[in-house]
Design goal:
Largest sheet: 4 strands, antiparallel
Mean pLDDT: 82
CATH architecture of the largest domain: Sandwich
Oligomer: single chain
Structural class: mainly beta
Helix content: 10-25%
Number of strands: 7
CATH topology of the largest domain: Immunoglobulin-like
Strand content: 25-35%
Distance between the termini: 72 Å
Number of helices: 2
Order of helices and strands: HHEEEEEEE
Low-confidence stretches: none
Strand order of the largest sheet: 1-2-7-6
C-alpha cells in the first residue's frame, strides 16, 4: 500500500483547505471499496455534465438524489421483503442498499434527474456568477486631465 505525505504542500499554500480535505478523503477511502453500483461521468457540453448510475432492480421511489453543499449523494434502499420468498438458482443482479458520493466543484448544481431503463441519469450544470466572470476594464488616459481631489484631502 502506498501512502503520500501532503504536509509540504499544505505548509506552502493558503486558502486550499477544501482541496486538502478532498485529498485526505480520497486517500482515506478503503482501497478495496466496492464498485457497486457502476456509474459513468460524461461531459455533455462546455458547462454541463451527466452522471449515469446503473440501478437495475430499483424503482424511482427507492432512489434518492440530494445535493449537500459541494457534494452529490445518490442512495437507494429496497423497500419490499419479497426476497425471502424467492429461491434463486443464480443471482447476478444486486439490489442491496447503497450510497454513492460525488464531490462537486464550486458553482456546479444539479439541474435534473431521470430514471429510465434501469439507469439513473443526473444532469449537472456549472453556472459561474457574473461577479466571477472575467470582465474587461477600460483604460483611461491621463493626458491633460486633472485627478479629482479626495473629499478628506486638504486643498
Amino acid at each position: 500500500m502506498r501512502t503520500h505525505d501532503f504536509s509540504p504542500l499544505f505548509r506552502a499554500s493558503v486558502g486550499f483547505d477544501r482541496v486538502a480535505d478532498m485529498l485526505d478523503r480520497v486517500m482515506a477511502q478503503d482501497v478495496g471499496s466496492t464498485g457497486y453500483p457502476p456509474y459513468n461521468i460524461e461531459k455533455t457540453d462546455e458547462n454541463a455534465y451527466r452522471i449515469s448510475v446503473a440501478v437495475a432492480g430499483f424503482t424511482g421511489d427507492e432512489l434518492t438524489v440530494e445535493q449537500r453543499e459541494n457534494a452529490l449523494v445518490i442512495s437507494a434502499r429496497k423497500e419490499g421483503d419479497d426476497e425471502a420468498q424467492r429461491t434463486y438458482l443464480h443471482r447476478g443482479i444486486a439490489t442491496r442498499a447503497f450510497e454513492r458520493r460525488f464531490m462537486l466543484a464550486d458553482h456546479v448544481r444539479v439541474s435534473g434527474a431521470a430514471h429510465e431503463n434501469g439507469m439513473l441519469h443526473v444532469d449537472l450544470v456549472r453556472e459561474v456568477p457574473e461577479a466571477l466572470k472575467p470582465r474587461r476594464i477600460e483604460i483611461t488616459s491621463d493626458s491633460g486631465a486633472e485627478t479629482p481631489a479626495l473629499e478628506n484631502e486638504p486643498a
